[in-house]
Amino acid sequence: MALGTLTTRHTQALFGALGRLARAPLATALTLLVIGLALVLPAALGLLVRNAESATGGFGQAVDMSVYLKSGVSLARARELAIEARAEPGVAAVSVISAAAGLRQFRQYSGFGAALDALKSNPLPNVLRIVPQPRSSGAAALETLRRTFASWPEVGMVQLDAQWVLRFNAILAVVRRLVSIAAVLFGAGVLAVIGNTIRLEILNRRDEIEVTKLVGGSNAFVRRPFLYTGTLYGLGGALLAWLVLETAVLGLQSPVAHLASLYGSGFVLTGLAGRELAVLFGGGMALGWLGAWISARRHLRDIEPRA
Amino acid sequence: MIQLERVSKRYPNGREALTNVSFFVDRGELVFLTGRSGAGKSTLLKLIALLERPTRGTVTVNGRSTGALKARHIPAFRRHIGVVFQDHKLLADRPVFDNVALPLVVAGAPLKEIDKRVRAALDQVGLLGKERLLPMELSVGEQQRVGIARAIVGKPPLIVADEPTGNLDPDLALEVMRLFKRFSEVGVTVLVATHDLHIVREFGSREITLTSGQITGGAPDPLPSLVASR
What we know:
By secondary structure, chain A is an alpha+beta fold. Helix content of chain A is 71%, strand content 8%.
């Protein structure tokens, strides 16, 4: 078949499908609403995970590690060790907190000043404060760093001040899995909704399909407008889901920014962008097409002309 | 053009609509298929338009045996046959133009050509100027002629019509038959099922009569032995 003819047929099918959707605005709107809401849930969860990831990525700066040297290690040796620590991969910054400075801070913040005065010598060791690079602030990378420092002979103990970040990352991993599960479940829901809508439309247009087949319309010709209808449903549903999410993000942005500022973070909640939008719209349209295809394949076969 | 060899058709409910029917229709012939209602006329037309398949025997149309035709080739096969139905089978929610254009749209004709040919077909059945009306806004006779326009718009080499004049007054009926006659004169094969014997006599064309599913008049002409050699 000539390319021009094929284009004409597809254009006809597309506009035919658009026209029919527009002629039944209420039914179309209801179907779109169902599809849109079904797409919103997995997309919203995905958005939550991505925002939480970028928020804790910002908190990566707040993750640090206190390396307590053994009490016999001198300040001069501690300074040498700080230079060696700086050279370790995944380390962004190292500062030395001398035993004296530690004691001063402790005296200042703890309120045990008088008790400390009773001590003859400073009981605190010299400490290296290690800030990992943001990309090395994941659980595994932090653990590797911890082990490295713990194996040094001068090190007494390594304390990680990031347990909550690690737990949070674990929670995110759970939510990420939930996103996949929700995507599969709600995707199946969208397939069913579109499949059923197309089935009803095929039954409604039974006479037309029969006559079209009578005058030599092929199955592909008869099926085409339904595939367009399904794809348009998917596209419309995705558009609706996107609008819902954008509205939600807009409403949440200011309180979330306030919350982040309390944690000393400049984090800003963002909506779907780039690849995520492509996945939402591509996924919606693919589900629409597939739902229509399955339905059309099943139900168009049953309609054969009887004169 | 059309060749039936010992064709029988039994419906799933056990009724045998056709029994051992053989005949041949040549290219450009106008043949009337007569008989009482229930004699098997409609069934015969359905076998030719591939709306039904024979239980026994072979139906060959335009050199193709319908028995061997795969499902995916049926649409192309149907595009070469213009069918006029007794109940016209028009789409009630589409204007006359769209109804007549359907075979061309299905075949993927360019829009310009569709426009030209639909008007030409409507002109031939005397309905030019009624393109935008819905079938319901037309008289029964006009609806019937829309159905005829749809059957001829694709310029098929074969037209089969099931009681195309059943709902028309005698003058209109004659007019429609003259139309079919003209088609046959330019090489189109036309097979018309009708019980209107007056008209059949008037045209003096070949007549095949069916009685209870068997040919009882207008014997296979030419004889099957000659058919084979064609």
